[in-house]
Design a protein that fits this description.
There is one protein chain. With 355 residues, the chain is α+β, with helices and mostly antiparallel strands. The chain has 7 helices and 20 strands. The chain has a 6-stranded antiparallel β-barrel. Strands 7-8-9-12-11-10 form a 6-stranded antiparallel β-barrel. Strands 13, 14, 17, 18, 19 and 20 form a 6-stranded antiparallel beta sheet that branches. Residues 7-16 have low confidence and may be disordered.
């Protein structure tokens, strides 16, 4: 038998079972294991996903009467039966009015509860019947691995409740928040995330929340296969504080770090975060910590923070990241350099000031 004839015979034999299958089996009763998993997750989680639209009051140049002007839309998800909803901060930023649309099409006005711009997270609240609210189930983002399947549900381009599927492409990424601070330990995924997906859930194969979709990397503004999500372990820490206090409760040292610490560290040839000033009456002041001063020769450096509890501090992001893992009342060892000599201070962390 000639090689070409042999190939054709082989292809015919290979195609036979497929032809038989398509002729005898009802497609409505057939699905692969992965398809079944996707369908189950969509049915389970989509009632927890909401559409968020926001608008601002704008006064026209030709009229003194302010008008509500649509500003944008995004996605959120139901956190609890009390009506609390989690989304991205940038979805509701500067909004005068926020509306939430549930899966059944019911629209509610939402009230602002709290936000953490440095994590791009916000909590809003609606007054809706408990029976209509299906809270999402939080998972554990620490269990994710590169290659694990993830699912995104959101409202890209205003198309309600759209599901996309992908994998975890990378872990431990960093992206810039609205406040220009670094958001760390971010999940990277190739699940398609487009404008309108912001604030929506990223789910694992059990339908558990593992991240909040927040950004894409794309020159065109549309999905290019690189999306980012804030890990749910960060969300589980931030959201309860936003609900209770309206802001995160990151404790403070009682000092003001110099802005743009990395720039000034290079300029002055030091490593760490220079203390700009020490708050009057604070524990650091009582311990003798000093900020920047001036004399006849110019600026005189005081203490430069180089470590907290042995964790190296190179910039303000490092400093805040360490403090985020602490609580008010914790005593930490603050290591500084002053006059080219190391100094250690035992500082009790204080609650953040009230706004």
């Amino acid at each position: 038998m000639k090689p070409l004839q042999s190939l054709l015979v082989s292809l015919a034999l290979f195609a036979q079972p497929i032809a038989s299958l398509t002729q005898t089996q009802d497609y409505s009763e057939f699905s692969t294991i992965d398809e079944t998993n996707n369908i189950q997750i969509f049915k389970q989680v989509s009632p927890s996903v909401v559409n968020i639209t926001n608008s601002r009051l704008v006064r026209s140049f030709y009229s003194l009467n302010p008008q509500q002007v649509p500003q944008g839309s995004g996605t959120g998800f139901i956190w609890s039966e009390d009506g609390y909803i989690v989304t991205n901060y940038h979805v509701v930023q500067q909004a005068n009015r926020v509306e939430v649309t549930l899966q059944d099409g019911t629209i509610y006005d939402a009230s602002f509860v709290g936000a953490e711009p440095d994590k791009d997270l916000a909590v809003i609240k609606i007054d809706a019947p408990t029976a209509t609210l299906v809270p999402i189930i939080p998972g554990n983002s620490a269990l994710l691995e590169v290659g694990r399947k993830v699912i995104a549900i959101g409202n890209p381009f205003g198309l309600d409740t759209t599901m996309t599927v992908g994998i975890v492409s990378a872990l431990g990424r960093e992206i810039d928040s609205v406040g220009q601070r670094k958001i760390r330990d971010v999940i990277q995924t190739d699940a398609a995330i487009n404008p309108g997906n912001s604030g929506g859930p990223l789910l694992n194969s059990l339908g558990q929340l593992v991240g909040v979709n927040t950004a894409i990397y794309s020159p065109s503004g549309a999905s290019s296969g690189i999306g980012f999500a804030i890990p749910v372990n960060t969300v589980k820490k931030v959201v309860p504080e936003l609900i209770t206090f309206g802001r995160v409760q990151t404790p403070v040292l009682g000092i003001t770090p110099i802005p743009q610490a990395e720039y000034y560290s290079r300029l002055w040839g030091v490593q760490g975060v220079a203390v700009l000033d020490v708050q009057a009456g604070s524990i650091p002041e009582q311990l003798g910590m000093r900020g920047i001063a001036r004399n006849n020769r110019g600026i005189v450096l005081g203490d430069v923070i180089t470590a907290i509890d042995g964790v190296q501090i190179n910039n303000e992001d490092d400093l805040i990241s360490v403090l985020e893992e602490k609580a008010a009342g914790d005593v930490v060892t603050v290591t500084t350099t002053r006059d080219n000599r190391p100094v250690n201070y035992q500082v009790e962390l204080q609650p953040p000031p009230r706004r």
